[in-house]
Design goal:
- The chain has 160 residues and is mainly beta.
- The chain is 12% helix and 57% strand.
- It is built from 2 helices and 8 strands, in the order H-E-E-E-E-E-H-E-E-E.
- It has helices spanning 2-17, 101-104; strands at residues 19-29, 34-44, 49-58, 65-76, 79-92, 109-122, 131-137, 141-152.
- The protein has an 8-stranded antiparallel barrel with strand order 1-2-3-4-5-6-7-8.
- A hairpin with an 8-residue loop joins strand 6 (109-122) and strand 7.
- It is globular, with a radius of gyration of 19 Å.
- 19% of the residues are buried.
Length: 160
């Protein structure tokens, strides 16, 4: 019985601070000189700690590079530090002399890498939800803006 009460107390305590939001972002990849668009989901565990995930797509006109990013954030007022892992897929469709049977049937070759990354988010306006971000890893360095679109939960005001 004590174990059940302990689990229920833990879940209720976590629910006091829990809130999630869905946001959109647009940015610029400084290495590849391509624009990026993306969508993200963040879940606030505690007032200063949140977990999140993002899907970003860049280079829409040609090879299309997509990234899935999982991260943790710690909030220092207007500034947040971000750290996580990034999984990048680069679609390399070679239509030249090296065309093989797999590329003829639509399963193009993909290069897939997973690397750690870190970043910084800054909220320039106190009463607005807009944030400016910088992300740095071996695969990508990008800068851009993000804005929450939809909040889930009413228990606490998220600080962005």
């Amino acid at each position: 019985m004590k174990k059940i009460l302990l689990v229920l107390a833990f879940l209720l305590t976590q629910n006091i601070y829990s809130q999630a939001h869905i946001g959109v972002m647009g940015g610029y990849d400084l290495d590849m000189e391509n624009s990026q668009i993306g969508v993200g989901l963040n879940y606030m565990l505690f007032p200063k700690v949140s977990l999140g995930g993002m899907l970003m797509i860049s280079d829409l006109e040609s090879d299309s590079k997509s990234m899935v990013m999982l991260n943790g954030k710690y909030n220092f007022g207007r500034l947040s530090l971000v750290a996580g892992i990034m999984n990048m897929e680069m679609h390399n469709m070679d239509m030249g002399m090296n065309m093989n049977m797999s590329s003829m049937y639509g399963s193009d070759e993909m290069d897939r890498e997973t690397k750690p990354y870190f970043g910084v988010e800054y909220k320039p306006f106190k009463n607005k939800k807009l944030k400016v971000y910088y992300t740095h890893s071996d695969m990508m360095k990008s800068i851009g803006i993000m804005m929450p679109v939809f909040n889930l939960g009413k228990k606490m005001h998220m600080n962005h």
